[in-house]
Design goal:
The complex is a heterodimer of chains A (about 80) and B (about 850).
Chain A (H helix, E strand, L loop, with lengths): L10 E2 L13 E3 L7 E3 L12 E3 L5 E2 L15
Antiparallel strand pairs in A: 1-5, 2-3, 3-4
Chain B lengths: L8 E4 L2 E4 L25 H8 L6 E2 L2 E2 L5 E2 L2 H12 L5 H15 L20 E2 L7 H8 L8 H11 L4 H5 L5 H8 L8 H4 L8 H7 L1 H19 L6 H4 L1 H36 L4 H16 L8 H18 L10 H14 L8 H16 L7 H5 L9 E5 L11 H13 L5 E6 L5 H12 L6 E4 H12 L16 E3 L5 E3 L12 E5 L1 H8 L4 E2 L5 E2 L13 H33 L3 H5 L2 H6 L13 E4 L2 H17 L5 H9 L6 H9 L10 H17 L11 E4 L4 H7 L30 H8 L8 E2 L2 E4 L1 H4 L4 H14 L4 E5 L3 H9 L8 E3 L4 E3 L5 H8 L3 E2 L3 H7 L4
Parallel strand pairs in B: 5-6, 7-8, 8-9, 12-15, 15-16, 16-17, 18-19, 18-22
Antiparallel strand pairs in B: 1-2, 3-4, 9-19, 10-11, 13-14, 20-21
Helix pairs in contact in B: 2-3, 3-12, 4-5, 10-12, 12-13, 14-15, 14-16, 15-18, 16-18, 18-19, 19-32, 21-22, 21-25, 22-28, 25-28
Classes of the chains: A mainly beta (about 80), B alpha/beta (about 850).
Amino acid sequence: MEAKNVQNQPHIEVGTNKPCRTCKWQTPDPTDPHRGQCTANRHAMGGVWKRWLRDVENLTCSKHEEGKLSFRDHV
Amino acid sequence: MNQMVSAKVLEYRGKTLNFTPEDPAEAKIPAEELHEHLQKPSTARTKRLKDRCRWKHASAGEFIEKSVTAGIERMRYLTEAHKASVGQPEPIRRALGLANVLNKSTLVLQQDEFIVGYHAEDPNMFPLYPELSHMAVQDYLMSDYSPQPASEAAEINEYWKPHSLQSKCQPYFDMKDLGRMYQVSSMEAPSFASGYNSIVPPYETVLEDGLLARIKLAEKNIAEAQKVMTTFPWNGTTGLDNIAKIDNWKAMVIACKAVISWARRQARLCKIVAENFETDPKRQAELLEIADICQRIPAEPSKGLKDAMQAKFFTFLICHAIERYASGYAQKEDTLLWPYYKASVIDKTFQPMDHMGAVELVEMERLKISEHGAGKSRAYREIFPGSNDLFILTVGGTKADGSDACNDMTDAILEAAKRIRTAEPSIVFRYSKVNRPQTLRWVFNCVRDGLGYPSIKHDDIGTAQMKEFSKFSLNHNGATDEEAHNWVNVLCMSPGIHGRRKTQKTRSEGGGSIFPAKLLEITLNDGYDWSYADMQLGPKTGELSTLKSFDDVWEAFRKQYQYAINLCISTKDVSRYFEQRFLQMPFVSAIDDGCMELGMDANALSEQPNGWHNPITTIVAANSLVAIKKLVFDEKKYTLEQLNQALMANWEGFEEMRLEFKRAPKWGNDDSYADPIITKFYEDIIGGEMRKITNYSGGPVLPTGQAVGLYMEVGSRTGPTPDGRFGGEAADDGGISPYMGTDKKGPTAVLRSVSKVQKNQKANLLNQRLSVPIMRSQHGFDIWHSYMDTWFDLKIDHVQFNVVSTDELKAAQREPEKHQDLIVRVSGYSARFVDIPTYGQNTIIARQEQDFSASDLEFLNVDI
């Protein structure tokens, strides 16, 4: 497993220019569109282990990549 | 490339059984493309309609087809009417809203179609419902599917915020509890937050009476009520009841008149196109015939099969998509259409046609449903991957006198499904030993073609359940013993009454989910969710160090479950409270005999209780408990603390330990260690605790174990579990199905395990994957038939089958464009395989493909 480094975990950076909202690994929360789900955590067996994102405008991490994944790569 | 059938042979009762294809021509078809060769639309027209079908499948919250978006007309006209009707009684405001939408919305008429009508202004669109959940609409506004103009849509959503069901209900709960539900990891979000709903419309009154007769009834009731109010001596204790009744009846009149007017607008449109634009004389004549039907129907009773199909479709659109959103396609279609089939096909007294004419009509109906768009919230665009919504009709079963209810319409419905090959609508077959062989053969033909439906329900169990729930009827007018035979699946799994009254009108009666796998995960962490949301997700039920025995773990889980299920059902009942005050359904009320008689709104009247809730991921939790009992408390090989350390590391560095937990006894193998624990888990906790709750209708709430696509979604929100599962891996794919790949002892061991769970259950979904060569062989039907009779004798509620090879599934993953016709059973619904995310596809491939050994055939007493 990766070392628990705050930079590679979603963490608050108010006003970040790399918010989870624009990250390709993010998908909106199923109920509240102001929150989200991170899908970057994937393991060799093909599983997608999601993490809940409280505030998609002000959370970020070092894995941030602009874009949108195809439905095929989500759950 | 592998050939379809191997040279497999089996020695059984002194005979050598060869599993060569029943149709010799199939031997030449490569296994990797079998399902691309099975469709046989009955006419060139239905082939064209399928080729141009505007599918609206969604997966992972996204629509697969790029052209699909939300429309604005419904929300615009509903809002316009709401603003204009301030001060009027609420039921009348709702009726005026429906009327404004129907009077002003754009009509859609498409090439080649015979069944007409749509619920949005463009066939690539679907309507939204800001009066339900403003969060769900907000999600659309922030997506690629926003209605246009977006500014107008945003303004409308803002207007509804104080008036929406969501806003009415939320204040009665702690936002901390609701926040836990909104995540959909331990509990499904309440319907007031998602807008999700389901209904069983009383189609029978529309087809049998026509809406003009319903209007007359309402007007007569109004006149009688007004007479009572002016008769001496006035009695205020009862007389004032008439005020609400009169409002409801008036609303019913407005709604029925609006629906008739809307249908007649469709008639005029067809006539205008026929007389001014259509150049093909054959289509011209057909358009004039459709115009004639829509002029008469649904105002008047249906007289032939074409009438009945059109009346049914208009009713579906109003009840499921225009008056209010509701998922589902619940109806006993063969019983409902039989009088009209008889008139048109057998007696030829009206709209004469032959049997294949009826088949073509059903194929066209299936394609109309296939292109129906549902304005579902994101959660529901995630959890039915590969489909547009849950459309499930029911056929077969028994009549009130216990005799076979199958008829030639049943066969037409099944034949059409086999020929046209669409994932929607799914079909439920009520299996009884009195069902006629020719219909069973059609059921089998659909199953072995890999449609994943009909899913099979036990006829006696469903009927007995309707009788049991009837005992709790608050107005002592639940289903009679005869009416108890009139049941259909409301959605995927739960039975409910169909007919002219006593049907389920809202999902606040039954529906919604709870997720035991996540609850077990947080049970081992004092209610804290470390793996997904990083927050307290349930009550504090004890730190690990306080769980000294297996009973301690068991009881801590029970407390987590009690908290969650109580919250789930109370949110439904609070929804019900406000539905009947602000979300009245005047049209649905008008076509229900009970609402019409009593002057009540359909959300308010409950004659037949039908409380249910869906535990999903139960087997991951149950297998985990078995592993904990065996390895921690019985054999003491590990401590709970060591287990927790391994789970927190997602088993990394603990592979040997993981394999031991993975190898612990698992459900579905007729295992003497696992099965008693898991049976007790179902009966004592999952069902036992749930049934202690009494819902709005006065009856108990019982578990309907199933999965839809939530076994994937919740799996991805659940950390590693003590059954040896990694964090994020999918959970079990059915309410009582073994975990994928862990049922190693053959198909009859699965049946023996599943049959042990009987107490405190309403329904439980069993997914099985059967061998393609065996099912397509000359012995396939006999083996399947014996399997079904054994299943019936073991009193198992449900079973459904995938019959598709791993080779073909993997080929479709490689080249999806060549496998557009490959359909699979996901859970309570079927889906186009190529429209499912890879994560979900892999869960279907991983399911155990059940072969049959000679001992299995002996157990099933197969007579070959």
